[in-house]
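can u pls check wat happens w/ iron/sulfur cluster
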Amino acid sequence: MADVDKIKEILKKKYPNPKIELNFSNPFELLIATILSAQAQDVRVNKVTENLFKKLKTPEDYVNLGEDNLAEEIKSINYYKNKAKNIIKCCEILAKKYNNKVPETLEELVELPGIGRKTANVILGLGFNKPVIIVDTHVKRVSKRLGLTNENDPQKIEFDLMEKIPKNYWTEFSLAAILHGRYTCKARKPNCGNCVFNEICDKNV
Ligand code: SF4
């Protein structure tokens, strides 16, 4: 049985101020960056958005640019054609239905093309400062190995973690677990020897 208080204490010490590695300056930029980041490296996304965000500021700007031109702008990113299509469809809805704003509820966000539950939670947590549990591949793996959940389904993991982790630590926990999974508790070769959890981890590898 995982000691949640201990896990929180260790995580907070190791990752006192965890941040997402995508660059953005408002919820709309975060939405675009998260759609682009699916199956792609954050560094590559940041390189593309550095130019993109200078030129395009609102959903309407993307709609006016059009799918083909957008695809050209983002072609160094995996699945760029599909992502360009989703971004344009998404921006059309934001422009028409939400007056060029990003909606602030999970229900509305997951209705948008290219936005799943995980992405919606990223936007709510980091764009709007709402408490959220973000379950990506790293959070899933780290939580299972630490014994915080036995579930496989991301939504069930999210609910499990919501029950166990204090609400005021949800978003920070998610960001810290992402970093821990990315750099230490890696999928193939977890670096248990150098891990801050080595003494207490269930190592459900
Ligand atoms: S001890 Fe190993 S399995 Fe447990 S969290 Fe650390 S790296 Fe992952």
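The CA atoms of residues 9 and 16 lie 10 Å apart.
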